[in-house]
Design a protein that fits this description.
The protein has a seven-stranded mixed sheet with strand order 4-3-2-1-6-7-5, covered by helices on one side. By secondary structure, it is of the alpha+beta class. The longest helix has 22 residues. It folds into two domains: 41 residues; 123 residues, Mago nashi (Mago nashi protein, 2-Layer Sandwich), CATH 3.30.1560.10.
């Protein structure tokens, strides 16, 4: 009798597990279909609107260095996220005048930005970095990371871009 009861309980458990296992794959399939629909909607925007033409970043250090990122799009949108010691902390969406964006891109061309080394560093630890990516409509994106040993003309250009970002935010670089 015990053997019969044990066999019955074991069979019930196995049947229950089997029915749950059959139901599990259905949930991920639904989620996958929804994800595909979302991805299609997200990619329906033209690539030029989805890709920033300028990305400006300041990285943190162990001290009081501003840490933020600004993504600037050809249509004038600037998507900003400020972390510690940034001119403005938190996320912001603001507008940058088209003339300002054009000015930044013109100055980058005049500086031969695409021909600059990818990184300026002398190997000192705990230095903040300034990173600038220029993504032209035609051509390949170029990123330059500046820590130390930066030529004066590049330093001046990075300061100019930083000023334009903080102006668009209505903030000041003086902290």
């Amino acid at each position: 009798m015990r053997l019969l009861l044990s066999s019955f309980l074991l069979a019930s458990l196995l049947a229950s597990c089997a029915s749950q296992a059959q139901q599990l794959p259905k949930a991920p399939q639904t989620a996958t279909k929804q994800k595909v629909k979302t991805d299609k909607a997200a990619t329906s925007k033209p690539a030029t609107e989805a890709t920033p033409v300028i990305v400006f970043r300041k990285t943190p250090c162990f001290g009081y260095c501003p840490h933020y990122e600004a993504r600037i799009y050809a249509d004038g949108r600037m998507s900003y996220e400020g972390f510690e010691y940034a001119p403005v902390e938190g996320k912001r969406e603001v507008r940058m005048p088209a003339a300002t964006i054009k000015s930044i891109l013109d100055k980058a061309r005049a500086l031969h930005f695409t021909e600059l080394p990818e990184q300026y560093t002398l190997g000192t630890s705990d230095l903040p970095a300034t990173s600038l990516t220029i993504n032209p409509a035609k051509g390949t994106a170029k990123t330059v990371i500046a820590e130390e040993g930066v030529p004066a003309d590049l330093k001046s250009f990075l300061d100019y871009v930083e000023k334009q970002v903080t102006n668009a935010l209505g903030a000041s670089t003086d902290r």
